[in-house]
Amino acid sequence: MIRKLYDWTMSLADHPRALWVLAAVSFVESSVFPIPPDVIMIPMILARPSRAWLIALVCLVASVLGGLLGYAIGAFAFDAIGRPILESLGKADAVEAFNTRFNDFGFWAVLIAGLTPFPYKVITIMSGWTGMPLATFVVTSILARGLRFFIVAALLWKFGAPVRDFIERRLGLMFTLFCLLLLGGFFALRYL
Length: 192
Known about the structure:
By secondary structure, the protein is mainly α. The chain has one domain (37-191). The protein has helices at 2-12, 18-29, 38-47, 52-76, 78-88, 95-102, 106-115, 120-130, 134-169, 171-191. It is elongated. The two termini are 33 Å apart. The mean pLDDT is 77.
C-alpha cells in the first residue's frame, strides 16, 4: 500500500494540475488542515528537480496566504472556528494564559512554527486572536516559510537522485519515520 501511495504521489508531479494541488494543500495546512505540504512537495521535487524553486515558491505563497486565513479566523471568528480547531488539537485550556504571553514572543513563535513540524495553523490562529500586528505576522511568515520550503528544495535539488534512491530502497522506513515525526509533533502540541 505504501508503495502504491508513493508511486501515485510521484506520478502527481507530472500531472498538469500538480502545482494547484500543492498550492491548495499548502493553503489549507496553514489554517485548518493537519497534513503538511511536504507530503506532496518532497515527491514533486524528487520527481522533477528542475522545478524545485517553482515548487518551493508555490508552497511559500500559498502557505502565507493560508496563514492570513488562519489570522482572520483568529481575529474575527475565534469562538466559532478558531477555538474548535484548537480544542481538537488539545490546546483550548492554555488559550487564556497563552494570550497574555504570545505577543511578547510573537515574532519568535511565528518563526519557530513556520520552520518546524509544529502545526503552523495554531500560530496563525493565535496571531489573529491576540492581535499581533499584521505586518509582523506577514513578514515573519514569509521569512519562516520561505526558509523552510527553500532549504528543503535546495537540498533535494542538490542531492535529489541519491535521496530519491535512498527513499525508494527504504520506503517503509521513511514512511515510518515520517509518521513518527508527525505523531511526535501532535504529541508535543498536546502535552507540552
